[in-house]
Design a protein that fits this description.
Number of domains: 2
Helix content: under 10%
CATH superfamily of the largest domain: Galactose-binding domain-like
Order of helices and strands: HEEEEEEEEEEEEEEE
Strand content: over 45%
CATH topology of the largest domain: Jelly Rolls
CATH architecture of the largest domain: Sandwich
CATH class of the largest domain: Mainly Beta
Number of strands: 15
Length: about 260
């Protein structure tokens, strides 16, 4: 289903724009857009999250790149490949202090393809936030979790090293948790948490704890972007718990465990 949606949206990009005298299927995205487009950037991750609302249910995506040729496509992240009216897409792999071009497109429940004008945003300078060591969580395995919204939002996405995927619980709110087994005992210098968030403001983790081999650490503040908790410990099994959140389908874009010694 997801591959089919991406293929349809890619075809929409390749289709020629319609003139006022053309009765073709492509419409102006402004016809269905409600309010302004929001682009929230995370300089620590090289990502930008675009949110937009529509007055009809649609499946949407954003094409983007450092030139007008674009070249990359980010699909809607709001809970799977079904039509809805609140849209969110995460653009990844962005360089600091660079102007990016982007275009919105979507397939509405009315059967039409919609496409916006070409727009731009400029990324800020690097945040200067430095992880205290290499992320060893990517070598681990998720052995327990509170819940998963669906296979597309599997708990394993929280440690896959890919900022374009995420783990979402099924409405766990402050009760969401995830357990990572590194498979070996590791000396660590800290942990990181990148919260997921919905375009309506829900699902944001504001603080979290980590329990390392039964020893509790935290709570640590979280929120938009990367949150780092300084922890000096040795352990193998790490349990991350959401302590306070805005509720809903809480989870993480990425959970990181930083090995000591660089």
């Amino acid at each position: 289903m997801t591959r089919l949606i991406v293929a349809i949206l890619a075809l929409a990009l390749l289709a020629p724009a319609c003139s006022s005298a053309d009765s073709g299927a492509i419409g102006d995205f402004a016809e269905i857009q409600v309010g302004a487009v929001s682009v929230i950037q995370d300089a620590s991750a090289g990502t930008a999250t675009l949110t937009v609302a529509t007055n009809i249910d649609a499946v949407c995506a954003v094409a983007y790149g450092p030139t007008e040729a674009l070249g990359s496509l980010a699909t809607d992240q709001d809970m799977g490949g079904v039509a809805h009216d609140e849209h969110q897409a995460v653009m990844t792999g962005l360089d600091a202090e660079t102007t990016y071009y982007y275009r919105l497109q979507g397939v509405g429940v009315d059967g039409r393809l919609y496409q916006s004008d070409l727009m731009t945003f400029t990324t800020p300078a690097s945040s200067g936030l430095i992880e205290p060591g290499p992320n060893v969580a990517v070598d681990g395995v998720v052995v327990e979790f509170s819940s998963e919204f669906s296979a597309a939002f599997a708990a394993s996405h929280a440690i896959d090293g890919d900022l374009g995927t995420e783990w979402s619980s099924a409405g766990d709110g402050d009760d969401a948790y995830l357990v990572v087994d590194l498979g070996r005992t590791v000396e660590i210098a800290g942990v990181g948490f990148r919260t997921r968030q919905m375009s309506d403001g829900s699902s944001v983790t504001n603080s979290f704890t980590v329990t390392i081999d039964d020893e509790l650490h935290g709570p640590f503040p979280a929120g938009a972007g990367l949150a780092i908790g300084e922890v000096s410990a040795v352990g193998r099994v790490f349990r991350f718990d959401v302590v306070a959140s805005t509720g809903g389908n809480t989870g993480a874009v990425e959970i990181e465990i930083y090995g000591a010694g660089g």
